[in-house]
Amino acid sequence: MNQEQRKRVILKLLESNEAISIHEIVSNCQVSEVTIRRDLALLEKKGMLKRIHGGAVRQTAISELFGFDNGLRQNKELKTEICRLASTFIEEGDTIYMDCGTTVYLLAQFLHRFKRLRVITNSLPVVSELISSPHIRVHLIGGVLDNARKALYGPTTQELLARYKADKAFIGAGGIKLSEGLSCHNEKEASITHRMAEYAEKVYLLCDSSKIEKPSYYNYSGISLIDFLVTDNKIDPSVLQMYRNEDVKVVTY
Questions:
Q1: Nearest CA-CA partner of 90 in 112, 105, 75
Q2: Calpha distance 44→38 (Å, rounded)
Q3: What sign for the dihedral angle of Cα 8, 13, 16, 17?
Q4: Of 12, 20, 168, 196, which one has the fewest beta carbons inside 10 Å?
Q5: Averaged pLDDT of the chain
């Protein structure tokens, strides 16, 4: 069992138990205690749990930790400016995908000026923001509701997405690393975002600089999935140059 699989097992155990022991994790993962201790240290560093003697406890409920409202509060001003910039890439008559990320949600406030636009999304907050704009045709992709993320997921969502094509996809990420690609907090979110990117002509990753070169829990794609990385001007100049040296199109405000 590789590290990503072990992390999923650990977090799954914590979803149904407030505390878990190292022995319990070892039993589920069939690896050494030393390996599990390293995994726990990594997850603690990412704020996903708190280590205790002989095991780990929830830092907070996993759904709350990565819930929509919690994510929206983080770096909101930076995310808003990123979205203001991203909106300039949208043209009248476009069909666009918008995933359920909090950064992408903030893009919706800049869409009201358009007279002809089609938005395809699995995000309830995006729908709520756009419901007052009659000129924007919104397609809400059905599925199973995740209350914390305020979004729809599942096989139905994936099946319906396959029926649409878009000019542009605006997606978010829990983290991005040049050598590893895009990552997020859970597999179901990754599967929807990845499909949106696959079915779009151009893909714009909206990501504040705090997430750059800091991978998240679940890696789901190489960097080649995106056409543009839209971020803020607080990005480290050496990191920015590193990305541009690898022909990644980075746009900052």
A1: 112
A2: 10
A3: negative
A4: 12
A5: 91
Q: In what order do the strands lie in the sheet with 218-221?
A: 175-177, 181-184, 218-221
Beta-carbon-side half-sphere exposure of residue 197 (alpha carbons within 13 Å): 23
Position 15, amino acid: E
Q: What is the pLDDT of residues 113-139, one digit of tens each?
A: 999 999 999 999 999 999 999 999 999
Q: Specify the pairing of strand 19-21 against strand 136-140.
A: unpaired
The tokens for 16 are: 């149904």
Q: What is this structure's pTM? A: 0.77
The CB density around residue 232, as the number of other CB atoms within 10 Å, is 20
Report d(CA 35, CA 40) in Å as an integer. Answer: 9
Query: What are the φ and ψ backbone dihedral angles of 65, each rounded to 5 degrees?
Result: -60, -45
* Contacts of residue 60, Cβ cutoff 8 Å, sequence gap at least 6: none
- HEC profile of the chain: CCHHHHHHHHHHHHHHCCEEEHHHHHHHHCCCHHHHHHHHHHHHHCCCEEEECCEEEECCCHHHHCCHHHHHHCCHHHHHHHHHHHHHHCCCCCEEEECCCHHHHHHHHHCCCCCCEEEEECEHHHHHHHCCCCCEEEEECCCEEECCCCEEECHHHHHHHCCCCEEEEEECCCEEECCCEEEECCHHHHHHHHHHHHCEEEEEEECCHHHECCCCCEEEECHHHCCEEEECCCCCHHHHHHHHHCCCCEEEC
Please write the tens of the pLDDT for every residue from 193-209.
Answer: 999 999 999 999 999 99
- State how far the Cα of 124 lies from the Cα of 150, in Å rounded to an integer: 6
Backbone angles phi, psi at 168, to 5 degrees: -145, 145
